Structure prediction request, 404 residues.
Amino acid sequence: MQVVRHLSIPGMGEVYFNKQPYHLTISENLQQHYSFDPAGRLLTSYLNGVNYRRGLNNAVLRREQIDTDGKTRRMLSADEIEALIADIRARVVSITEHVQYSELTDLLPWLHAILDWDYPRLCQEHERFRGIYKPISILPPDQYQAVVLQAAEGCSWNRCTFCTLYRDRAFRVKSPDDFQLHIHQVKDFIGEAIGLRKSLFLGDANALIMPQPRLLELLRITNEEFPIGIRRAGGSTFQGIYSFLDIFGAERKTQHDYQALQALGVKRIYVGLETGDQELFTLLNKPGSPQACVEAVHMIKQAGIAVGIILLAGVGGATLATQHVAHSIACVTAMDLAADDLIYVSLLVLSGMEAYTQQMHAIGTRALTQSELSQQVSILKKGLRAVYVGGPKVSLYHIEEFIY
Ligand code: SF4
Prediction:
């Protein structure tokens, strides 16, 4: 039930309070907003036309609409985070002074909890996070609010030329005991705010490649710790388990294996196809092939699990652009996707991709200009929407927007 109350505060105006089981949102004149979890940690804010989202690791993403079709996105520096926290705390101090003489005194415990989180204490949360998780390099956009469980760490392949996401760690599958301990640490760290999260994401890059008996054991533990489909005390429900899978791993599973995953709550598997063009796929050193990917997707879907297909716009540069687009649309078309599947078009990020850049230089291609890249995204999206009328949602995947 939504309960919004308000208070007139001299110098501040009308201040609104939306108290929910898992978050408190405060709004000044319905123009400046900030929200906090039940422990009092900042979740999001909207101040002077700028959105801020704080991650569990105390990173803060800044997003600002610059014109009708553009947004700027960047992570705040440590100094900027400190200034933001100080600004919001000063606002909450003023609000608390007035709330204590009002009829809203039931809000005081939450407001005092917020004031307990100054910048140094939030920095300690960063250290705590690092003790529980390896860096969470990326998630699919619809899973940014999942509870991430690192059943495995890293990528079992780690050799695609355009990807450096997991180069900082060796691939490792957790033992059942390690995984159980990890889950207990995650629950303790997120606390009651876990009620804001409605899905479970099994990390890292391809946890599903682990041997099936171990995978089933870790999924059983996940089910015991987070009952799926059962309404929790605050009203939210875990809808299921989600994970990435590269094609290399997909080739090793049978339909029966996928059915067992489905029976244990796996709802969607995200497959990084990147391109449907065999020449470019090989050049990128992706494991498997586009055709193997199509076959794996058919098998996954026949087992009753949805898929999320990820394409990479801009990859292959100008020389391979035409074949990348044509073969990617053809490949995704061959997957026979349905309305519960998803298609993401992600944008190639060149910074830090020396191996890929040298490779493209060697074949004599050049990076797409910004306008060519926008055009390629548009052609991919239009082409896929034309194939799948009323079918899977086709969306842009802004990896620079990712924060956990
Ligand atoms: S399989 Fe995926 S995570 Fe691993 S290196 Fe390739 S793109 Fe990166």
